[in-house]
């Protein structure tokens, strides 16, 4: 079974995971979506997928686009 079939967000409003802004009501949406992700059994798979496929919009694996961007540009531990 593909990991996405176990996603908690399948039963949530998809718009919750794609706020139009990080300010005002959009900020609250991000926090609500992240709260769903924290309970999701496939959070790590989802985040891995988002990073590998450069998903630049919405909440994936409990992260915002800015957080994923930072993770992708951060130096890896042990890298030379
Ligand atoms: S971690 Fe969040 S965005 Fe990813 S599948 Fe789970 S609920 Fe959906």
TrEMBL record:
CC cofactor note: Binds 1 [4Fe-4S] cluster per subunit. Following nitrosylation of the [4Fe-4S] cluster binds 1 [4Fe-8(NO)] cluster per subunit.
Residues covered by the 4Fe-4S Wbl-type domain: 8-70
Transit peptide among keywords: no
PROSITE patterns xrefs: 4FE4S_WBL (PS51674)
Protein name (database record): Transcriptional regulator WhiB
Annotated positions binding [4Fe-4S] cluster: 9, 37, 40, 46
PANTHER family: TRANSCRIPTIONAL REGULATOR WHIB1, TRANSCRIPTIONAL REGULATOR WHID-RELATED
Top-level taxon in the UniProt lineage: Bacteria
